[in-house]
Every structure is written in structure tokens, then in C-alpha cells.
Automatic annotation (TrEMBL):
Ranges that cross the membrane: none
Recorded catalytic activity of this chain's protein: a very-long-chain acyl-CoA + malonyl-CoA + H(+) = a very-long-chain 3-oxoacyl-CoA + CO2 + CoA
Gene3D superfamilies membership: 3.40.47.10
Source species taxonomy: Eukaryota, Viridiplantae, Streptophyta, Embryophyta, Tracheophyta
Limits of the FAE domain: 24-312
Alphabetized Pfam families for the sequence: ACP_syn_III_C (PF08541), FAE1_CUT1_RppA (PF08392)
Designated name of the protein: 3-ketoacyl-CoA synthase
Amino acid sequence: MDHLILYLFPLLSLVLIVLKMIDKKRNQCCYILDYQCYKPTDDRKLSTEFSGDIIKRNKNLGLSEYRFLLKAIVGSGIGEETYAPRMVFDGREANPTYEDGITEMDEFFQDSIQKLFAKTGVSAKDIDVLVVNVATMTTSPCLASRIINHYKMREDIKTYNISGMGCSASIISINIVESIFKCRKNVNALVVTSESLSPNWYSGNNKSMILTNCLFRSGGCAILLTNKASLRHRAMFKLKCLVRTHHGARDDSYASCTQMEDEEGRIGIYLGKNLPKAATRAFVDNLKVITPKILPIREILRYAVLVILRKLNTNSKKGPRPMINFKTGVDHFCLHTGGKAVIDAVGNSLGLNEHDLEPARMTLHRFGNTSASSIWYVLGYMEAKKRFKKGDRVFMISFGAGFKCNSCLWEVARDLDDGNCWKECDIDKYPPTSFVNPFMEQYGWVNDEDIDTFVLPE
């Protein structure tokens, strides 16, 4: 009996250690319970005619700038149902106030967070962690405090208010939550992601800064996450892995996208000509890290063999380069809607077809580039189209100032078909049969004007 006890004691200790490790791992999982994308009211929609009026109100523009804007808008992939801040409709975009930015954020916060609580049955008092990311607006008290005050959240809530992270901030916010989940059990986290356009609507004539007015639109998303094992049966997605790449140490990457003043002191977002190159570098480096985490070994080996054979065979170097088939480990691709060129470039790099790119293209067309919240509108489109089945894997990719490329992989936890804000958009009409941009039809005449005699018609 003494010998039996002697052997059983270490065995039981080993079993307890294993059970403790399993329990710890089980409570470190990161689940999305639900999310709510913001759909502003219809009185904030930017039609072709009204967009033309906004451009004509800017007295700093000449024929060269009009032609540039026409080309940018026509090729942007953005439709006529995107949303702008209210101060634009009041004709005050040249002189926005601090209150304009606050109002823009309050409308989003009070709509989307309330809807998220109603959908999930989770109350404001149940939130343990709040992460807010709005890149170009910093207030005092911070926006996180503003949300806590409005919803009367608990005194012991942990808050993170991050700014300046650009369009890639929501995945950074998810990473913060994931790290907290590894240290604490039974936590509910609320991530709030948006952008305030009011303080950064550019009214000058610097072409590298005017471009942001053509691409960025109002929007936002509230995401409820948890690591509670008791709630995993209600979860929509489970986080599998996340990778962040930051090229801020490279001067050209750092300066490729930045908030600045022009020569006349007007604030705006500068998009440099080297931005595509900076994005490509960050994207490639990010893929190098995340690819082995999300693709099966057989695909990695297949690609490695093809690369080796191509190097050995000098004649093969004239042909197409070998490509990794990302569809061997990914079912859906959730791409940042940075612009039509960004979607095309990422699609070509990953070997995606039009079906794969459709969610990003339609999000750009319907909502524009809503900065860090864009990828959640893309996710909502795929849900509305009933593409998600239990066990599917969703690859999210986003880019941001700094320069950054962040990506993550989600696993669909159950069949999904709610549609989020897209269910209010008549999802069956997407994709539309025609993408003819009315700007060219209405304003194409500027290309035929003489710069010496040009006079803007009233």
C-alpha cells in the first residue's frame, strides 16, 4: 500500500498539472459574441450632385485639381450611398469645430453600442475591458471615458484609448484584448473602432491631401468579445492567430501616410506616392510570418519544392513565379477597403478571384473607406450573403499609417446569416450590374477645358 501511494501521488500531481493547463488554455480563447457596424442616417449620404457642390465650394482649386479629383473619384470604386459628417452638409467643412468631431463620434457610439447590447443581452455593467480606437481625434476626457459616462459602466473597468494607429487599428485593438484574455478568466471586452472625419476634412489644393476626401467616409463598428467558456456556444467567431508588422523604423514607410499641415496651414492626411511600395513591403513581411500559421504543411512544402526547382532550372525563370495557394487554408478573405488599387493589388498577390474580392469591392462601393472599421463591413457583407458555415476560416488583412500591416485568422463558430447593417441595404442588389460612375457623365467636360480660359460655372 505504501508503494502504491508512493506511485499514485506523483501521478495525481501530473494529472492535476495537465488539467490545470487544459483549463488555462480553455479560458484563454478569444471569441466574438457579436458586432454591430454603424449605418448613418440617409440625410448624410453623398450623392454625385452634392459632392460636386462640395468641390465647387473649395475656392483653392483650379482646373488641374478638378481634373485630378475627377480621375480619383471615377477610379475610386466608391458609389453614391456613402456617408459624410454633418458639418459638410452644413457647408462648414473649411472651418470644422471641436464639437463637430464630438458629435460625429457620439452619433456612432450611441447607435452601434446600444444595438450591440440589445442583440447580445449583455449590459454595460457586464463589460470588463473597453478598447477604443479613433486615429485622428484625441479628446479630454478621452473617448473611452465618454462612452463609460454615457453608459454608466463599472468603476473597475479597464480602458485602453488608442489613437494615431490608422486604418489597421481594429486588429491592434483585438490584439490588446487577446493579450488580456491570456492573463484573466471570464472577461467581456468591448472594442469600439471608428474615425472622426470632421477635424480632417481637407480644404486646400495639395493633391496628395485632397485624395483622402475622395476615399474616406463616416462609419464605425462595435465588437463584443469574450473568453468565457460558458458563452462559447453563442460565439460567432474564434480567433486562431494574429500577426502584426510595423515598418516605422523605415523613414520612407513612416512618412508615406501622415497627418500634417500644408503650406497654408490647413490640416489633412497626406498620402505619399511611395505608399503602395510601403504597403507592399509590410504586406510581404506580414505574410512571411502568418502563412505557416494558417496554411497546411503540404502547401508550404509544395511551394518550397516549386521555388527550388525554378532556381535549379534556368529556363523556368522566364515563366510565371510559383504562388502559394492560400485557399488551401482559408475559405474567406476579409480585405481592407483602402481603395480599388489596394483591393486589386492584394487580390493579385494572394491569387484571388472576383468572388473572393466581391465583399471588399462592395463595401468600398456602398460605405467607402471607413478606416479601421472597414474590415467589419466586409465581414458583414459575407454574413449577409450567407457565405459563412461552421468551421470556415476567415483571413483579415488591414493596412495603416506607421506603416503597418496587421492580419488575423478567425474560425466561424456557427452558421451565420444575420447580415448586420447590410440587411438594411437590400443585399440582393449587390453586386450591381453596372458600376458606371456618374461623375464622368456629369463632370467629364473639365477634361476638355483650356487652362487659360477656364471659368468654373455657377
